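Researcher: Batch entry, complex prediction.
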Amino acid sequence: MFLESSALQNWIIGLLTLSILSIVYKENPAYRFAEHLFVGTSVGYSVMTKWYTYGKPTIVKSIMAEGRWTYIIPVILGMLIYTRYFKSISWLARYCIAFNIGYGSAYVLTNDPRSLVLTQMAATFKPLWVPGNLFQSVSNWVLVFGVVGTLMYFFFTAKRTGIVGVGANVGKWVMMAAFGSAFGNTVMARVSLFIGRMQFILRDWVGVIPK
Amino acid sequence: MSFWEKAQNIDRRVPYTLLIVLIAYILIRPIGLAVEINAITQAAYNNLDKVPAGSIVWLSADYGASSMTELLPAQKAVMRHAFGKGLRVIAGGMWDEGGAMTDYAWQDVRKDFPEKKYGVDFVNVGYKPGGKVLLERIVADAHQALQGIDFYGKSFAELPLMSEFKTFKDAKLIFEFTSGTPGEQDYMKMVTDPLKIPFSAAATAVSVPGIMPFVQSGQMQGLLQGMSGSAQYEVLVKKPGPAVAGMDAQSVAHLLMVVFILIGNIGYLSTRGKKPQSQA
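Model: C-alpha cells for the complex:
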C-alpha cells in the first residue's frame, strides 16, 4: 500500500505543503524548491506510468510475444516528434504532428456533432408553457431565450439594433451570470483544495482532529 | 485615507491569514451544519441504485492528487454504494494517477467489505493512455485495449471478473470522476451516447458549469458537484467522511469571502468619483 501513512511520510508532505503555501507571504527559496520538486516528480511519475502500463507491455507482449510487428509503424511515427531537437532532421516531426491533427480532426468531425451539437440543440426545444408548473415555465423561458440571446451576441455581421440589439443585450447579461457562476464554482474548488490540505495537516500530521 | 479607501487596498496577506485561521478553527471545532441533498446528486445516487445486483459497473478515475480532496471521497462513497448493492466494479482511468487514486479508495473501502475479493468483485485496471482513442478501443475489445494487465501488473487471465468484461457493452453503468480533459465529453461521444449506457459523474467544482448542459440534456443522469456533492453522497450511503467534515469550513470560508466582496464593493461605490484624501 504505497500511500500508507508513516511519520516520516507525513513530515515530508507537511513540510512541502507549508513550503508551497508560503508563497502567500512572499516568494522564497522553500517555495521554489517545492515547486520544482513537484514539477519534476509529476513528470517522472507520468513517464514511468506510461512506460510500465503501456509502453513495455506493447513492446514485450503485443510486438515480441504476439508478433504484431505492424505496431512498430506507429511507434516510429511517435518517436519522430523527438527529431525536433535536431535541426537538420526536425522536418520529420511534421509527419507526426500532421498525423495527430488528421486523426484528431476525424474524431471531432465524426463524434462531436451528435453529442455536443445535435443533442444539445434538441435539449433547448422546451415548451414555453408547462400547465400547472409556473416555475418550470419561467425556467424554460430563461433557457430558450438565454441560448438565443447568447448566440445573437456573436452575430458580428449584423448591426446591434432592433431585435438583434435586444437579443445581444440579453445574451450579454446571461453570459455574465454564467461567468459569475463559473467564478463562484472556481472559488469553491480552490477553497476545497485548501481545506483538504488543512485536514491533512491537522489530522494526519499534527493530530489535533480525529481520523 | 478614509476607511473605505483603506478597505480597497487591504494587503492580500490579511484575507489569506483570516481564511487560514478560520478554516483551521472550524475544522478543529466544527459547527455541525446540515448537508442538504440536492436533486442532481440524488439523481446520480438513484442511477446507481437501480442497477441490478451482480451487474458490472465501470468507474473511471480521471483525476489526480490535485483533485483528491473533491473526488476521492466521492469515489469511496460510490464504491461503498456499489459494493453494498452487490455490484461488481471495474475501475480504470484516462489520467496518470487514476490507478493510484482507485487503489487508495479500494484500500479504505475494502475494510468495510471484507467479503469482497480482488479479481472477483473488483478490478483496478489502472491508467492506460489514449483518451478517447482508448475508449473507442475498449468498446471494440477491452482486453486488447487495456493490454491485458491490471494496475498491479496481474494478467487478466488471473482475474475471473475480467472474463465477463469484453467491451463497455458489458457494463450496466459508467460512473466517472472527472477533473478535466480527457473526461466526461469523451465518454459521452465515444461510449454512453452511441451505446446508450447510463452515465453519472462526480466533477471538481470548477468543471461543473461546463458539465451542467449535459445534465440538463439528459446525456448525464446526475452529477456530484465538487466536495459538496461528495459530502452529499457520503450522507446518502450513511458513511460521513472527510467531505462532510470539510463542509462547515467550506461554508464559513464562503461567508468570509462574501464579507470581503461586500466591503470591497461598498468601498468602491462610496469612493467612486472622489479624490483620495491624501491628494486633497
